Amino acid sequence: MKGKTIFFIILLAFWTILSERITVESFLIGIIVCIFVMKLNSKAEERNKIILRKPFLIIKLIILLIKDIFISNIEVAKIVLSKDMDIDPEVFIYKTELNSERLKVLFANTITLTPGTITVSLDGNELIIHALKESNKYGIENSDIEKLLLQIEERS
C-alpha cells in the first residue's frame, strides 16, 4: 500500500508540473487521471516485480547491449567506408532456447538494435535474421545476451 501511495504522489506531482496552471479543476482532473493510470498499471505490476528482483542482471544486460552496439557500429562503419564492401548478406533461422515470450521479443529487439543484423520474424522459438556478414551469424549463435536472458528466465 505504501508503494502505491508513493507512486500516486509521484504521478500527481508529474501531472502538476505538466499542467499550465494549478487550479482546483486541474488538480481534480489530475487525481482522476492518476487513478486511471494506477488501475492500468496494476495489471503490469506483477510482471514488473520479476525485473525488479534481478537488478544486477538487468544492469549487466544493458551494459552488454551497449558494448555490442558500440563494437557492431565500428564493424559496420569499416564495411561501409571500405572500397571493397566486404559483405556476405545472409538470411538464416536461429532457434532460441528462451521460453518466455517477453524475453524472446527482447532478444529479437537486441538483435535488431545491433548494427549489421535485423530480426525479420519471430515465430515460436524461431527467429529469422538477416545478417551482413557470416561473422554476425556466429555472433548471434554464441550470444552472451541470450545466455544472460536465460539466467533471467531461470530466476523468474
Question: Could you describe the 3D structure shown?
Answer:
The chain has 156 residues and is an alpha+beta fold. 67% of the residues lie in helices and 12% in strands. The protein has six helices and three strands. It has helices at residues 2-18, 24-52, 55-81, 101-113, 134-141, 144-154; strands at residues 90-95, 117-123, 126-131. A three-stranded antiparallel beta sheet has the order 1-3-2, covered by helices on one side. α1 (2-18) packs across α2 and α3 packs antiparallel against α6. The longest helix has 29 residues, at 24-52. It is elongated. 14% of the residues are buried.
Descriptive terms for the model:
156 residues, alpha+beta, three-stranded antiparallel sheet, 6 helices, 3 strands, 12% strand, elongated
